[in-house]
Amino acid sequence: MLDITLTVDGVTRPLAVDPRTTLLDALRERLDVTAPKKGCDHGQCGACTVLVDGRRVLSCLTLAVQQDGAQVTTAAGLGEGDGLHPLAEAFLDHDALQCGYCTPGQLCSAVGMLDEAGRGHASHATADVAAVPTLTDEEIRERMSGNLCRCGAYANIVSAIREVAS
Hints:
15% strand, oxidoreductase, 2Fe-2S_ferredoxin-like_sf
């Protein structure tokens, strides 16, 4: 067992983990943080997406020991106080969820994606990689393509993200 410390949603949490423990399993099974979901456990669905030091991470593919000392933000930690994050509000307003299983990962991915776009990072859909990206629907779809929704709420997810991006 190795001793590590994670700051999860603003709370510093020490724990001892087996070096093979994924960040997702450490969060869910050891720290009782259930916002990130275990979907495929292979990094293909995005349900486990969290922000680590502000960057999008698939927590099922990341070892907890690699994140020792990191700031981990889950969908539960996105809002301020009792208020919802603007993206969570937009998801509700645009009916961008059905069963809700993928929603925490979608929200964390969208927050990370908006930050990446704001810093000028291009995507595969960006026509001019030297220009500041314009978040068209095509850009949003491409940037969110690692997050799957089995219910098919994609059109409303794109609308919600577009509203917050503008």
